[in-house]
């Protein structure tokens, strides 16, 4: 008889595509490298029931999560499409991944730092967990000079997504959050993982104990705060991902007042602030009183093409206090020191390059390029008679397909135009009927995608 | 009357050094930049009681944490010492921070990648959250060729410390952990933050609901497993930080058997494996059966001087299953995709440089250099009549000062020799009476520290 302890879970295609809990109970076995016996997948064998399992319970909060995280799921469908159509020239306007080279003034700064690390004088080991003093000061001076945010309020990070999860660890499992609906899925998913929510409710496509603040064309993509109950935390992204809507000064003033009246903390995601063309605020801290109720998280990803380089920051003003008077920044500092060791020093050198006069100019050019792409996409759908939103202050175009299912539209565009988009419902039930088109792409790809879309929907 | 809403918490020295919860209730007010009125610190004014606080409760788990995270606390004491003795030539053998330049073959790889990012062909945006396929394959081939660990079992990270916290998020708040006592403080502190523990018990200097497995000279720094109750998770670091002890093959076989009998998961921290000189296993996966009960976390930090570059990895074999049969790797993948966006691509290029034939040789040289430092430190304390442990397989020397308080010895060495060490009790109650000396330092500093220590304890 075969020694079953020597076998793991089968990695054959049927098993891998099955939900893991089923796969693990299946009888599909795979020999380890040391075993030469070949075992074929045989259904309904009792063998796998004896596969060793630990006695550690799976984290029930993670079990609540639905399907995969949105973007890996889209990548999976893209791969499946490519398998089906091996010759297809797929154009990806889905995940929002930057495509244009990083300006040389910035990469030179990173290469220089890398080389310096091999010299006695230029070598440095652990950096401060909160980031290099010079970079924190440059961020404060560049983006917050008029709002009283200081160097010590800035925590440099390896990106906004990473900091969102660290903020959730900071808040813990007892808080209740509100999100814009639709919104970037990391807010909701990290809330589920931390145990802040109840189970997913299939009928409404929402998790229990999260407040979904509907943002639609009807309310100008700004929630009707008079009907929103108090929550501890309010995640608010502006310019918004996915709708592209930037909140006005008046709206943000309302939001800060709402938070202050309720004693809530706003986590303001300003990752797209540099895309703002009108006079919408680029930071929540432009609003008087925000320092007592808001955290801001930001990123170099979409300005300098740092999606792979990994660099962002979070601002926690020292004026922001928990109900017992304890400064929020002090606890976040403890999280950062315990769970993080600082962003890569090479990336931080790149951040300093970004904030040099030449770097700022170069980033403006990159942003300007993507904004031109946005115009092309807007023109495409407008000429086809679709209502489009966002775009003006963001690298995202939010296209309305009234009465249609987002994933169906996603599939149709992928199948017929070989263009990857993002289904609006992936951002929450409020995104149903919409598709997000990202403006991150080489110009020729944007033009070609526009051509195919015009052909598809003419 | 002054409008108190315009004032934040005072940043004057007395307020900043006071515990934050007190400071926030104090009356020390600071005008924001927009207010020109100058307000002096005045004690016992009722003013600060009206400072705005949110209604969000502080996370009770974070409130359980004692003092600061160990290493920032040591940095603080170092800074205080320097203020007191401005001319002192402090030698830091505390935090375990690498000091030697990164070999050029590795920095060249990083600089080359940085430059490539400014070209159309060389640019890349988001990488896979799990790391570049080529790097995952190289790690599997270099370190796990004989143990059946595959590329897909490897998750590339921005460092072991970061992954430890992500693993704790994976496990959630319901598990109970065991740690070696003494041990690297990130295991315990991340457990507290996740809500796995009860309050800190001052009398025994332990958190409730953590199993501290005593490791002392008496048991050869390997716990008496016959007296250890079952826990869900066992954090085990070998070669150990701080004791420097590497577990033998026989001991690790015992550990795996213990975990398997209890259905526990071992989180094996092998960050110092390359320092092993004898035939102790360099990976838990050298032990048969470990793939069903163990996770391994590792790092380039101490091999290539990557403490600031940030690159590590975690191995979760597909054979490791929760009690319901769900693969642990599948949930970790979800955490990584939701809370992380991959290590910097430039750091990953450095990792590929490390694992090239020249890179491996260069890392061996770096490790060899620090091991020579270890010999100098061992000789110093041995010649002074002290019992020293570790050192043989690790960059740490664990020096016994019987009957003395670790922080007192730390203070004595800092005060009289201007040498920063790490007090053993910072790693748990089992470290009391010991001091950890790090071998990371320039040769001349190690020699000078040895001279001062010989002078101090002659």
UniProtKB/TrEMBL annotation, chains A, B:
Segment forming the signal sequence: none
Protein name listed in UniProt: Aminotransferase class I/classII large domain-containing protein
NCBIfam families xref list: DAPAT_plant
Keywords, ordered alphabetically: Aminotransferase, Pyridoxal phosphate, Transferase
Residue ranges occupied by any Aminotransferase class I/classII large domain in the UniProt entry: 89-453
InterPro entries: Aminotransferase_I/II_large, DapL/ALD1, PyrdxlP-dep_Trfase, PyrdxlP-dep_Trfase_major, PyrdxlP-dep_Trfase_small
Any one biological process term the GO annotation gives: systemic acquired resistance, salicylic acid mediated signaling pathway
Top-rank taxon, per record: Eukaryota
Gene: LOC100827448
Keyword Cell membrane annotated: no
Requisite cofactors: pyridoxal 5'-phosphate
Protein family (similarity comment): Belongs to the class-I pyridoxal-phosphate-dependent aminotransferase family. LL-diaminopimelate aminotransferase subfamily.
Pfam families (alphabetical): Aminotran_1_2
Gene Ontology MF terms in the entry: pyridoxal phosphate binding; transaminase activity
The organism of origin for this protein: Brachypodium distachyon (Purple false brome)
């Amino acid at each position: 008889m075969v020694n079953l302890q020597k076998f793991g879970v089968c990695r054959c295609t049927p098993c891998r595509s099955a939900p893991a809990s089923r796969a693990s109970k299946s009888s599909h076995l795979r020999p380890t490298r040391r075993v030469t016996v070949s075992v074929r997948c045989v259904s309904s064998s009792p063998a796998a029931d004896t596969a060793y399992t630990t006695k550690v319970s799976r984290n029930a909060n993670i079990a609540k999560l639905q399907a995969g995280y949105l973007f890996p799921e889209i990548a999976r469908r893209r791969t499946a499409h490519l398998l089906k159509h091996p010759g297809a020239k797929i154009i990806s306007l889905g995940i929002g991944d930057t495509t244009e080279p990083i300006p040389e003034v910035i990469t030179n700064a990173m290469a220089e730092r890398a080389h310096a690390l091999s010299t006695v004088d230029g070598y440095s080991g652990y950096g401060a967990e909160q980031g290099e003093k010079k970079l924190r000061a440059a961020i404060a001076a560049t983006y917050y000079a008029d709002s009283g945010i200081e160097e010590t309020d800035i925590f440099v990070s390896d990106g906004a997504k990473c900091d969102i999860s660290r903020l959730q660890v900071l808040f813990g499992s007892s808080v209740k959050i509100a999100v814009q609906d639709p919104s970037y899925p990391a807010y909701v998913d990290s809330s589920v993982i931390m145990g802040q929510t109840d189970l997913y409710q299939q009928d409404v496509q929402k998790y229990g104990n999260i407040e979904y603040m509907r943002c639609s064309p009807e309310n100008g993509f700004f929630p009707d705060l008079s009907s929103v109950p108090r929550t501890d935390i309010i995640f608010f992204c502006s310019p918004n991902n996915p709708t592209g809507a930037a909140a006005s000064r008046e709206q943000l003033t309302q939001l800060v007042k709402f938070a202050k009246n309720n004693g809530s903390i706003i986590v303001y995601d300003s990752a797209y602030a540099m895309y703002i063309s009108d006079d919408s605020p680029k930071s929540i801290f432009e609003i008087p009183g925000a320092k007592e109720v808001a955290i801001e998280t930001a990123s170099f990803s979409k300005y300098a093409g740092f999606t792979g380089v990994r660099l962002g920051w979070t601002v926690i003003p020292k004026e922001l206090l928990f109900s017992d008077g304890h400064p929020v920044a002090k606890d976040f500092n403890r999280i950062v020191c315990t769970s993080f060791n600082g962003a890569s020093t090479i990336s931080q050198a790149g951040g300093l390059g970004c904030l040099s006069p030449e770097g700022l100019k170069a980033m403006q050019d990159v942003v300007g390029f993507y904004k031109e792409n946005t115009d092309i996409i807007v023109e495409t759908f407008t000429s086809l008679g679709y209502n489009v939103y966002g775009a003006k202050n963001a690298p995202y175009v939010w296209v309305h397909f009234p009465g249609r299912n987002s994933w169906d539209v996603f599939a149709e565009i992928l199948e017929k135009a070989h263009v990857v988009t993002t289904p609006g419902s992936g951002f929450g039930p409020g995104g149903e009927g919409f598709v997000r088109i990202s403006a991150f792409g080489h110009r020729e790809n944007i033009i070609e995608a526009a051509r195919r879309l015009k052909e598809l929907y003419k």
